[in-house]
Amino acid sequence: MLKVSLRQISYFVAAAETGSIAEAARLANVAQPSVSWAILKMEELLDLELFVRQHARGVSLTAAGHRLLPQARGLLHMAEEFEAVARVQGQELTGMLTVGCYSTLAPAYMPRIIAEFARLHPKVKLQLHEDTVDDMLEKLTSGEVEVALAYDIDLPDEFLKLRIHSAPPQAVLPHGHRLLDKPAVSLADLRDEPFILLNSKPAEHYFLSLFEVAGITPQIAHAAQSFEVVRSLVGQGRGYSILVTRPLSDMTYDGIRIHYRPLADDVPKQHMCTVRAPTSRLTRRCQTFQDICVRLYSPRGRPLTAAS
Question: What is the pTM for the complete model shown?
């Protein structure tokens, strides 16, 4: 029989995430000594030291605490799921769903997904984390994020992915550009022009690989981690860019129109997919999120790897 309670595990997770016993107690709406005693008792039962206590500086996880935190979060997710199924009749969902998303994808896709999820399941709180690829994978592995929306670039093979849709890269040109009369442009057409690189991960590796395959060295004039900064630099005539995500409006933040043209080159598409950690369990909330993504942005979902 289990000797550690879910309450103790929840206190442990709260203290680990806040770095404070007092803050964990505040969030749980209980007295601080109750949280301290529960965590101490948990350490005794497990015969492990989970925290380093620092007077007036809160708590920090030990190596053992770091190893147990993802499993603790997973147990709490499972307990929430069990409680929701037991308490709620029919298909109503409750609880928390934490979702990660690449920062370049989030503005174009996540607001509609969040709004649709809230319309169908108003009792679920969806918490969004906008991240780089490295941060997103770390949060998926630790259990801080349950599912993420990403491009399938530089993702480890063991992560569970469900393809939502595929999109080709396009040239982004300023107004009045000499190639706007062409229905499609090639990288060779742009060889000698200044290039504006989106250099956030994994976009930078993908876009530079397109030039490498074509045997062309781009003339990088500017590099920016912000998708909209890249678009605005194009609008100001500082060069061209290559992007995949295309907002509905071709106006930049500073009110200048830019133009998109397909690439004539045979280049690989980017695949948007949902991503889960290899050890994660597919909860009803997560499955619902994936179903909404597929329904909104794809005629059907096609697994890249095992996705259950």
Answer: 0.67
Task: Give the closest residue to 222 by CA, choosing from 255, 269, 270, 174.
Answer: 174
Domain 88-158+275-303 coded CATH 3.40.190.10:
yes
Q: How far apart are CA 272 and CA 246, in angstroms?
A: 13
Fold topology of 169-268: D-Maltodextrin-Binding Protein; domain 2 (3.40.190)
Rounded to whole angstroms, the Cα distance separating 292 from 143 reads 22
3-state secondary structure of 242: strand
| Nearest residue to 170 (alpha-carbon basis) of 153, 183, 154, 152 | 183
Task: Measure the CA–CA gap between 259 and 246, rounded to whole angstroms.
Answer: 10
pLDDT per residue as tens digits for the range 173-228: 999 999 999 999 999 999 999 999 998 878 888 999 999 999 999 999 999 989 99
Give CATH for domain 6-69: 1.10.10.10
